Amino acid sequence: MELEKIERCQNEVKKIYDLFDASHDWQHIERVMKNAKTILEQESADAFIVELAVLLHDVSDPKYKKPEEDLESDILDRLELRDDQRHHIQEVIGSVSFKGGNGKPASSIEAKIVQDADRLDAIGAIGIARAFAYGGAKGRKLYDWHEKARTEMTEQEYRNAPTSSVTHFYEKLLLLKDQMTTETGKQMAEERHEFMLSFLKQLQTETDGNK
């Protein structure tokens, strides 16, 4: 029964993610799922909750959500879950987003796993690719070495300021390694973090620190 619900959910959400830009498409969900299952191998958690939360965590992302839509609730309604399962999944999803440093802390092991799995996909080589894919979709500069990264901002300021893609590294991506909550997540983040530092050093060399 649980496997059937996961498959039904997967079929529904794939159609949604296929409409998003490459930074949050179906491949993103596949990678986050892979990360989550890797972490699950070392943690005692409810895999059913984790997998459904991974599948659903971006369907109602404010960056893509239309004002009249509530796709997350619509799909959860159709899955006919127990009230405690639904509440737990929504609690997990609610703690995933970074929100400019204003995100909710993960309060369960399932939330920690999904949060780490999603953030791992925001760093390293794939994190670099996604940052520039999203910046390109929004028409943002690749870099601006004179732009100052913000250390404090509201969620609205974080989402709406047209900062360059490289500035996003300093406002979010380089902060994520130290925010991992599971031991596996921490270990996986180390190499990815170092790769981003190497990339930024090489990029600055090639652009000579110019605007």
TrEMBL record:
The lineage of its organism: Bacteria, Bacillati, Bacillota, Bacilli, Bacillales. InterPro entries: HD/PDEase_dom, HD_domain. PROSITE patterns: HD (PS51831). This is HD domain-containing protein. Pfam families: HD. It comes from Planococcus wigleyi. Residues 25-123 form the HD domain.
